[in-house]
Amino acid sequence: MPYNSDSEVEDVEEPMEEKVVVEVKPVSAEQRAKKLSSVISKILDTEDTKRPILSKKRNIEAEIDDAKLEAKAKRVLNAEKKLKMNAGHVVPTHANAGYEKMLRKTATKGVVALFNALRAAQKAQAPEKESAPQMAKEEFLKSLKEKPESKVGFLQDDFAMKADNHLEEEEEEELL
Question: Maximum CA pair distance of the chain?
Fold first, then answer.
């Protein structure tokens, strides 16, 4: 009820909640040790040692079972895939070494022919690029030595040499 200066304020009494007091019986050290040992023995007596011990997450065992099932399915699929890939494969032996050598040479010739055809096709498609102009060694070195004049003084090679040498002037004045 909103407070109004004209009306009287009524005190509303709310019933107090009763506090429940639970008596805790003192447990001896022997009793705690027995309870702890019984819990530990139950955990250690389980058959599956890969299960989580005292996990806070309740559904962790179901997740572990799902992961194991998925891993088993993947192994089966991979085994089937491997069998399909190796269906026509013959392991080379000394008996068929000559035949295997001939097959290897034929494959090499085929790959060489393929790369030669690719190179020829690329040359036919690409326009001829102009190569860089050829210069003599002396001309190249001369062009490197010739530098365009820079407007900024400190970028020039002889910047420090052109600076006023105040020390020489001072020495000349002292001598006079």
Answer: 117
